[in-house]
Amino acid sequence: MTPRLPAAEVAPHVLVWGAPPGCAPSPMLLLSLLLSLAPSGLRGEETRQVYLEVPGWPDRPQNLLHIRAVGPNSTLHYVWGSLGPPAVVLVATNTPHSVLRIDWTRLLSPEPEGGLAVLPKDSIQFSSALIFTRLLEFDGSDSAEPPGKPYAPYPLDEFSWNNITDSLHPATLSATFRGYPKHDPAGAFANGSLAFRVQAFDRAGRPTRPPRLLHTADTCQLEVALAGASPRGNHSLFGIEVATLGQGPGCPVIQEQRSIDDEYSPAVFQLDQLLWGSPPSGFVQWRPVVFSHEQADRGSALSCRASPLHPTLARALPRSSVVRAFFGPQQSYCTFNLTFGASTGPGYWDQHYLSWSLLLGVGPPPVDALSPLILGIMAVALGTPGLLLLGSGLALLLRRKPPSEYRSIT
Ligand SMILES: *[C@@H]1O[C@H](CO)[C@@H](O)[C@H](O)[C@H]1NC(C)=O
Ligand SMILES: *[C@@H]1O[C@H](CO)[C@@H](O)[C@H](O)[C@H]1NC(C)=O
Ligand SMILES: *[C@@H]1O[C@H](CO)[C@@H](O)[C@H](O)[C@H]1NC(C)=O
Ligand SMILES: *[C@@H]1O[C@H](CO)[C@@H](O)[C@H](O)[C@H]1NC(C)=O
Ligand SMILES: *[C@@H]1O[C@H](CO)[C@@H](O)[C@H](O)[C@H]1NC(C)=O
C-alpha cells in the first residue's frame, strides 16, 4: 500500500538532491517526505495488472501497442508506435480507471494533433515521450575524431515496420517492432533489420539476459537490436539518435551514477540516467554497454557513449505522429546520440549484431542494491578481522577460565 521500494534501494537516489550539508535529514525521512509530496500516480505500485492492446484500423498495418498497467490507485499508459519513427508516449494517471482514446482519422492524417488522449485529462500526473529518430553510422577507421566521419543516417520514419500482432507475447508481456528501410538501393538491409522489443512487467525483478536492469511494475524495457545489416565500411560504428520533449527552457541532463561491479552486470561500473524534472517524475535508465553477440555475454560487451542533450527544432527531426497526436505541434525537442562500441576491439563487424537496452518508467528510478552474493562476500571480508579481534579480546578476558565454550567463536 505504501511505496514499495525498500528504503536502501531508493536512498542513494534521494541523496542526489538532498539538503545542504549540516542539516541533512536522514534518507528515510527524505524518502517519506518525497513520497508524501508525490502525486499518487507517481508513487509506484508493487504489482500491476498489465494489459497489452493492439488497437487497429482496417487496412492499416498494426503498429500501435498500448500497454496499460493498472494499480490500486493509478494507471500507467505506455503507447508505443511506429507511425513515423518508433516512439513511446508515457502517461501516469492517479486513477485505476483512466483510458486511452484514439481518434484514428486524426491520428492517420497529416495533422495528427488530438488523435491520442488519455481520459480523464485531470487524472494525468506526468507525461513525456521518447522518439528514436535516426540510425547513425560512422566510419570508425577514421579514429582521429571519434566516433568517426558520419555516413548519411537512416531516418527511422522511412522504415517499413512489421505488423506487431505477429510478435505479441502476452505471456512475457512483450512485442517487437521490426523494420527495414523502404528504399534500400544498396541492399544494406537485404538480410537485416532493426528491432525494438518492448517488454512490460507486472512486478519487480531482473531479466535473465544481460545487462539485467532491475525493473519494477512501473517500468517498461526496450531492447534495440540491429542484426544482419551490411555496414558501409569495414569499421562502421553504429549509433542511434533519440529525441525527447523539451521541458521549459532547457533539456534534461544525463546523470552518470557509479555502481558496484556486481554479479548482475560484471565490469559495468556505471548506470546512466535521464530524469525528466525533479524526481519522482519520469526516467530513462541504461547501462552504458551494448552486446555484439546475441548471447550478450561478457566477451561481446562493448561500451556505449551518450552525448549531452541538445535543444533541436521539431522540423529538423523525423515527425512522430504518435507524439504529435498526444502533445500537439511541440516546437522544442531535445536530442542526444548514443554510439555503440569503439573503433578497436570487438564490434558490429564480428557478427553483424548489436543490442542495447533501456528502462523507461515513472516515479523513483530503481536503484541497485548489493546482491546477496556480494553482501556475502563483504560480510566475509569485513567479518574475518572483526571476528579475530573479538576472539583475541575474549581470549584475554577469559584467560583464566576454561575456554572451551568460546572456542567456537574464533
Ligand atoms: C489508495 O486509495 C485508497 C482509498 O482512497 C487509500 O485508502 C489507500 O491508502 C491508497 N493507497 C495508496 C498506495 O495510496
Ligand atoms: C496483422 O497480423 C494479424 C495476425 O497475424 C492479422 O490478423 C492481421 O490481419 C494483420 N493485419 C494487417 C493489417 O496485416
Ligand atoms: C543475403 O543472404 C543471401 C543468402 O544467405 C546471400 O546470398 C546474400 O549475399 C546476402 N545479401 C547481403 C546483402 O548480405
Ligand atoms: C575493407 O577491407 C577490404 C579487404 O580487407 C579492403 O580491400 C577495402 O579497401 C576496405 N575498405 C575500406 C573502405 O576500408
Ligand atoms: C548526432 O549525430 C548526427 C550525425 O553525426 C549529427 O548530425 C547530430 O548533430 C548529432 N546530434 C547530437 C545531439 O549530438
UniProtKB/TrEMBL annotation:
Membrane topology label: Single-pass type I membrane protein
Subcellular location: Lysosome membrane
Pfam (any one): NCU-G1
Keyword field: Glycoprotein, Lysosome, Membrane, Signal, Transmembrane, Transmembrane helix
UniProt GO cellular component terms: lysosomal membrane
Residue intervals passing through the bilayer: 373-398
Keyword Glycoprotein among record annotations: yes
InterPro entries: NCU-G1
Keyword Signal: yes
Superkingdom to which the source organism belongs: Eukaryota
Function recorded in the entry: Required to protect lysosomal transporter MFSD1 from lysosomal proteolysis and for MFSD1 lysosomal localization.
Oligomeric and partner information: Interacts (via lumenal domain) with lysosomal protein MFSD1; the interaction starts while both proteins are still in the endoplasmic reticulum and is required for stabilization of MFSD1 in lysosomes but has no direct effect on its targeting to lysosomes or transporter activity.
Family (UniProt): Belongs to the GLMP family.
Name of the protein this chain belongs to: Glycosylated lysosomal membrane protein
